[in-house]
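A sample copied in:

***
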Amino acid sequence: MGLAIPWSFTLAIVDGYSVLVKCPIRQPGILLIVVLGDWVLSTLILAAACSTASVVDLLIHSDGFHCPPKICSRYQISAAMAFLSWFLSMASSLFNLWLLPSL
């Protein structure tokens, strides 16, 4: 998940510069890099979401009392947000993949 923020920030800077200069980036090579980066990042975000969900499940269903309710609810919210982040990243990736052949 540590790669998601720099990648998204870099894309936001590039998009902002493109809008400021009034020159849309429509080169297939650059868009291919964005698509591949989004796919890799989406896969890594899915792995992080799955590992977070498995840790939450392990803490909740373990025999001992390993997790206070307040902490477990925070882990559950973290897992839900990780899956939401994966869904949005995958939507962005699929949109960019759909946009690539139109160039």
User: Anything to note?
Assistant: The longest helix spans residues 28-60. The helical segments are 4-21, 28-60, 69-99. Residues 35 and 96 are 6 Å apart (CA to CA).
